[in-house]
Amino acid sequence: MVTTPPTQGLLQISEIASAIGVSVDTIRRWHKKGLVKAIRDGRGNRVFDVAEVARAQAKYSGSSEVRPFTVLKHRRKTDYRSIELFAGAGGLALGLENAGLSHSLLVEFDKDAAATLTANRPTWPVRCEDARSVDFKGVAAEIVTGGFPCQAFSYAGKQLGMSDVRGTLFFELARCISETRPKIAIGENVRGLIQHDRGRTLSTMVRVLRELGYRVCAQLLRAQYLDVAQKRERLIVMAVREDLDFPFVFPKERDYTVSLREALKDVPKSPGQSYPDSKKRIMKLIPEGGYWRDLPVALQKEYLKGSFHLSGGKTGMARRLAWDEPSLTLTCAPAQKQTERCHPEETRPLTIREYARIQTFPDSWRFTGSISSQYKQIGNAVPVNMGYHIGRCVVSMLDGRFDPKTQIEVKGDGIIGVNRGLFD
User: How many CA atoms does the CB half-sphere of 57 hold within 13 Å?
Assistant: First the structure.
């Protein structure tokens, strides 16, 4: 009897390798690169989705169709409004707008970033000020958001609540929440916030939000599974006013990734940084998807200099991206030695418009300031499509309707749910 290989469902790695005709090592490599997800089944075994791995196989064998670049946008506009602190060049703000929200206020201290916001959305109420000087009383909004630097707080068992974070930019977000009393507040930051100061920073933030009268839940989002051609992780700390009886809703990871080839298809020409001749000579020798270890040892030592003998922290050096994978996390400077982002084919850093595409900004979104300032604005932004998915979750919470196909509902009171099962 001939057995037809399964085309859907969850299987262990050896079973899925046999089912779709790829090696176990290949699936392990794809998983390590963040191209396919693994989850734990009820017995604690690591399993993969057959359809997802088959989709990856088609993409990386060149047999799948190259889809056009897409900035997600919902057709329905809502009456929900947001206040955003530390708005940057507008990645989160545009994503929320595309999800159906409007903005009551955006605060951004950097002059170039604030100019970018007003140049693209003249009707947005943008204030180019230090958040510490802004009075939020009287500004109406259902949502308050902000991505802030995570300075260490004065924790050490003092349990002083808001006094512990006074003088930090998180305090300004907390003050805005206290003065406006939104239904939902969202803080976003890098993954490192989870372990920052041995977890004390995040614990203090949660304690302050609870003190303000909010239930709290956190989730680590991975951009490459949320319609962004980039391996970028952001910690989303969500707070719901405790008098409101609705659950937390977070985006559900998709069963596909977006490749650099898809993101950069027909990208407009634009300015960008260039390599000096000495670096270009080295970078020409790096293969697609490779880095400094692909060089002869003599050239490794020449390029890395004193870093050659150091352990760790070198994977971003002399790094060339790969067409059929999402980009590595974009930084503020694509030609910086420690975090290089070289074009997959041409020997040059990514351009401004390529950077913007990878962050899912539309081609019409223009950035002000010098080239280095534009790179910084884009590199610091929340990817627009990730912001869209967060916005759709906020709308679902406020509407009281959640879509299990695209969203995860988390019930509970005052929990921190960094869903580690998704990240094994």
Answer: 18
Q: What is the C-alpha separation between 414 and 418, in angstroms, rounded?
A: 13
Which one is the CATH code of 266-380: 3.50.50.60, 1.10.3720.10, 2.20.28.120, 3.90.120.10?
3.90.120.10
Domain extents for the chain?
10-60, 81-257+383-423, 266-380
- What's the token pair of residue 77? 């506009």
* Secondary element (H or E) of residue 30: helix 24-32
pLDDT digits (tens, 9 = 90+) for 238-268: 999 999 999 999 999 998 999 999 999 999 9
Q: Look at the block and give the residue holding tokens 């300015």.
A: 271
Angle of helix 24-32 relative to helix 50-60, nearest 10 degrees, comes to 90
Which CATH superfamily groups domain 81-257+383-423?
Answer: Vaccinia Virus protein VP39 (3.40.50.150)
Centroid of chain to Cα 405: 21
CATH classification number, 10-60, choose in 1.10.1660.10, 1.20.120.290, 2.40.10.220, 3.90.76.10 = 1.10.1660.10
Q: Is 342 in the active site? A: no
Scored b (16 or more CB within 10 A) or e, 412-423 reads eeeeebbeeebe
d(CA 304, CA 310): 10
Alpha carbons 245 and 72: distance in angstroms, whole number: 29
Tokens of 134: 């802004």
The DSSP 8-state label assigned to residue 121 in this structure reads -
In the chain, the amino acid numbered 200 is R
Catalytic residue from among 128, 150, 342, 393: 150
Give the pLDDT band of residue 202 (cuts 50, 70, 90).
Answer: confident
Tell me, yes or no, if the pTM score tops 0.70: yes
